[in-house]
Automatic annotation (TrEMBL):
Keyword line: Magnesium, Metal-binding
Organism name: Micromonospora craterilacus
UniProt xrefs under PANTHER family: ADP-RIBOSYLGLYCOHYDROLASE (PTHR16222), ADP-RIBOSYLGLYCOHYDROLASE-RELATED (PTHR16222:SF12)
GO function term, MF aspect, one: metal ion binding
Protein name in UniProt: ADP-ribosylglycohydrolase
Lineage: Bacteria, Bacillati, Actinomycetota, Actinomycetes, Micromonosporales
Top-rank lineage group of the source organism: Bacteria
Cofactors demanded by this protein: Mg(2+)
Amino acid sequence: MAFTLYPDTRLALARDALAGLSVGDALGSQYFVPGRQPADLADGRLPPPPWQWTDDTEMACSVLAALAEAGRIDRDALALSFAERCEPYRGYGPGAVRILRLIRTGTPWPVAAAAAFDGQGSCGNGAAMRVGPLGAYFADSTSRAAAQARASAEVTHAHPEGVAGAVAVAVAAALAARARLDGYRPDPARLLAGVAAALDPATEVHRGVRRVAGLLGRQLAEVVDAVGNGSRVTAQDTVAFTCWVAATHLDDYPAAIRACVEAGGDVDTTAAIVGAVVAAYAGVGTPGGVPDDWLAAREPLPDWVG
Ligand SMILES: [Mg+2]
């Protein structure tokens, strides 16, 4: 059913998703610090603040700023924003740094993105990790969320799996935000079915999402065994896992992030993706939402995100 979503509402949903994304990213990256134990978080002990956010948050801020400015993705402008805002010490992968350097020095993004990884294009997580707020922004239309996610992905990720990862996460966040507006929690199986329906059936990301739909209610370790936990830093071994965690813990942000930390792998990115989707539904400072003290522990977002 079509309905009107005012720009302020769109942005509020996207900002909550960005809060969830950035807190997940910043807290998740703490578990790469030597001596930090996932068991501490499970026991309710948080790492000392401030929690510094990484590339996931920096790129997501560019996506949100683009939507706040234009209401849609202008690929040329977004590519330039990613390139100009990139602080390499934030944990960008070497492939991403290379693409962004090419764009910054004048190579058109279609050329830079296509040249990555010996001409295959990137199937990394970069497009998926930054797109949750975009999905929440398009809570009124999963097809618009998917199309805009594709546009936001293409500027750096030319590989079909990299694009599919972004579409999956955006549609999950759109469905989560829509459910929040409608005031009901979607059944996890329906949420995953909605995500799968938006994906190219030829992709491994699609197969992974279908697979985790059959693993709802199972143990976390079993899901990690079946589809991965992001440790290979590809969309194929990250996105299905994050969809399962988000669908399972959609009304409990702390539980969702604890699951990412417990699973290990590329924790800042899995927690960023899951955090965006869950916060699109559960909100910030609400019961089950992003806890206020977690948000306060996160390094402030850059001024330019507004
Ligand atoms: Mg990161």
